[in-house]
Every structure is written in C-alpha cells, then in structure tokens.
Amino acid sequence: MALKFLIPLFFYLFLLLPSTSHGHNITRILAKYPEFSTFNHYLTLTHLAGDINRRLTITVLAVDNAAMSSLLSKKLSTYTIRNVLSLHVLVDYFGAKKLHQISKGSTLTASMFQSTGAAEGTSGYVNITNLKGGKVGFGVVDGDGKLNAHFVKSLKEIPYNISVLQISQVLTSAEAEAPTAGPSELNLTSIMAKQGCKAFADLIKASGAETTFQTNIEAGLTVFCPTDNVVKSFAPQYKHLTASQKVSLLLYHGIPVYQSLQMLKTNNGIMNTLATDNANKYDFTVQTDGEDVTLETKVTTAKITGTVLDQEPLVIYKINKVLLPKELYKAPEAKPPKPSKNNGDDEEEADAPSEQESDDQTADENGAGGLMDGGRLIMIALSLCMGILFM
Ligand SMILES: *[C@@H]1O[C@H](CO)[C@@H](O)[C@H](O)[C@H]1NC(C)=O
Ligand SMILES: *[C@@H]1O[C@H](CO)[C@@H](O)[C@H](O)[C@H]1NC(C)=O
Ligand SMILES: *[C@@H]1O[C@H](CO)[C@@H](O)[C@H](O)[C@H]1NC(C)=O
Ligand SMILES: *[C@@H]1O[C@H](CO)[C@@H](O)[C@H](O)[C@H]1NC(C)=O
C-alpha cells in the first residue's frame, strides 16, 4: 500500500533535511569578536575553518589573542599549529548548559586531532570535567592529566549544530606539538592504515604503486580509498589481474591535484587519474548528488563516505566501492532497474543502478538544489500527514 512506501520515504527525507541546509561559517561567527582575531586567522590559514564548516555537529573552543600569542611564541610550523588547533575542535556538541550537566561530572570527547593521522590512541581526546564552584576544566588526555584550561563564556550556540565557547588557555600536548612532517614527508600508506584503509594501503605497498602516490603529494594529491571490508570482498577479483593491471587499478584511485570536498562538489566532471597515460584514459566522472559526492566509472559508482585526512596539498577520502576502470572491466549490460532491498548504509554489493539514473549532466548544478527544495517540501507535507495519521 502507499502508506508502506511513504513511511520509509518520510524518514529518509527527514534524515536528509539537516544536510540540505546552508552550513555555518566559523570565520563569520568569530569575525564579530576582535579579541579572537588571531585564533580566527589561524583557523583560516590552517584550513581548519573549512573542516569546521563542513561538520554539522561541532564545538569550537576558541582562545583569545593573549592565549594565542603564547602558542605563537613557540614558533611552531603552520602544520604543527594546525594539529594544536585541531585539539580545539570537538566533534560533538557542547553548549554551556550541557557542559555543566556532564554525567558523572567528567567526560572524554574526540577532537579533530584524532583524524589528522598524527594522533595515536586517545591522544586526540579532550577531558572535560566539572570542578568545584561551577568551574569547567578542559585538558588534553595525552598531557600530564592536568586540566590546564577552563570555560570562560559561550560565544555562539546553534543547538546541536555548532557551539563556539571561549576557554582560558590553549590546549596542547607533546604529541600535537611534535614536529609535523611537511607534505612531502607524509607517509600515505601509514596514514591510511591508521584510519580504516589498511587493506588498500597494503595493496599499494605490495604492488609498487606507493612511489607514484608519494611523489605526487607535494604538487597536490587526492586519494580515494575503498575501506577495509570493501577491499576484502574485492580480493578474489583483484587476484586475477596481472601485476601491471594491479598498478593501474590502484593508481586509478588517485588524482594528481588537491580537491577538497567543496571543490569536488562544485567541479563536477571528468577527472584524470594517476593511471591516465595517453591512450589509456583511466578517467572517471565526479557527480554531486545532494550532499553526496559520487565517482562514476562506466562500470561502477562509488560514494565518498568519509575523510581520512585533509591537509592541503594531500586529501584522502574513504569510498564504499573499488573503482573499476572500463579499461579493465566490462561495463554492465543495461538491465531493467530493480528495487533495492538493501536499506542499510552498506552498499558495497548493490550493483543496481542508483535511483538517480537519469542524471542529466547539463541540468546538474541548479537542478540539484531545486530538487532538494522540492524534497523538503514533500517532507514537510508528509510529516504533517503522518502527524495527523498517528494522532
Ligand atoms: C545549522 O546552522 C545553519 C547556519 O546557521 C542553519 O542554516 C541550519 O538550519 C542549522 N541546522 C540545524 C539542523 O539546526
Ligand atoms: C565565511 O565568511 C567569510 C567572512 O564573511 C567569507 O570570506 C567566506 O567566504 C565565508 N566562507 C564560506 C564557505 O562561505
Ligand atoms: C579527567 O581529568 C581529571 C583530572 O586529571 C580526572 O580526575 C578524570 O578522571 C578525567 N576524566 C576522565 C573521564 O578520564
Ligand atoms: C611508510 O611507512 C611504512 C610503515 O611504517 C613503510 O613500510 C613504508 O616504507 C613507508 N613509506 C615511505 C614512502 O616512507
């Protein structure tokens, strides 16, 4: 019946809703406060501002210019300052009220330092503890156990979206301040191995493709790594490739330019890859599908599911399928579309055409926005209906 179909649709659209709204802009939020201008400047310089704006549930622990100047007096490199400041970005929402109501009075929460590739174990976690007299202390878990900073005031709160709080001191740790490798010293395979892409990293090392990836970092490199489960289920097929086909398949997962998520969203179109070599095109098409970015080869369509590292000039994304180039694999024959029975987020095996089959390349950019607005309208109408039905 129609209702059976409408209820899941309603929930689906509901889930989509937050991601269709316009993001916040940390630069603009902080611009109102001249006493945070240094902190704000360094968020931009280290590209953390973009990372903050992309996240939907986030807390920024801002420090004033005086606190920043004590950090700057250490003369750390920009890359290292990025690591220190990424400890100030919590990937959870803490408004002033929630800070004072932490259960059992103390909690550990992950910061963005956790995803820099530099953090080991719990060193990317921040300890928030309610202290005597209503004070709230902050400290880095990796440190000496001291809570060296405390909550000063709330600057901006958009509940469960973004919270910007002032704390008294810079949070730092030996690990965050450790000299950070310049881009050319970043070890691609070990960064990937630490973040759920070990299987793919192992293939890159074993095949000899590592050098090509490494030497491209400095000039800009974007890598799409299929996650461990995806690579594991692809292993039987991979085995049948010759050594040079293996290298081509792996190089097909890198593009020789830095492309932030925002850039990928706006630069839809054909991308050359590290495997592209005159006659062998080895290209794929980047498409934006709502808030998702998909990579379409003629054989398969993969979706970006997360960011392993975004540190210009290198960015590494997780994807949910191995990219199969048409140079190595036959494109599937046109089949009548069949409904997917798999509603989970695990789409590895769904080879059925996506619901957006008739993507019109030219009507793309503006069309997508229009569609989303239409979707939201339907959602609102449906939620009203549902509300009435369930009353
Ligand atoms: C998050 O903040 C942005 C910018 O203020 C706003 O447009 C959006 O609606 C908010 N999202 C939610 C889920 O509140
Ligand atoms: C955020 O705001 C700043 C200052 O108003 C502006 O320069 C910047 O382009 C904005 N960023 C985004 C992603 O809109
Ligand atoms: C946070 O740090 C304080 C002070 O070192 C400590 O007593 C507390 O147990 C820590 N909290 C957690 C959840 O580890
Ligand atoms: C990266 O690190 C791994 C393991 O630590 C090592 O085997 C590999 O040779 C390194 N690669 C480069 C390019 O330094």
Automatic annotation (TrEMBL):
GO cellular component annotations of the record: plasma membrane; side of membrane
GO annotation (BP), single: shoot system development
Superkingdom: Eukaryota
Compartment list: Cell membrane
Family annotation (InterPro entries): FAS1_dom_sf, FAS1_domain, Plant_FLA
Chain residue ranges for the region called Disordered: 330-369
Membrane topology: Lipid-anchor; GPI-anchor
SMART domains for the chain: FAS1
Family per record: Belongs to the fasciclin-like AGP family.
Name the record gives this protein: FAS1 domain-containing protein
Organism: Rhamnella rubrinervis
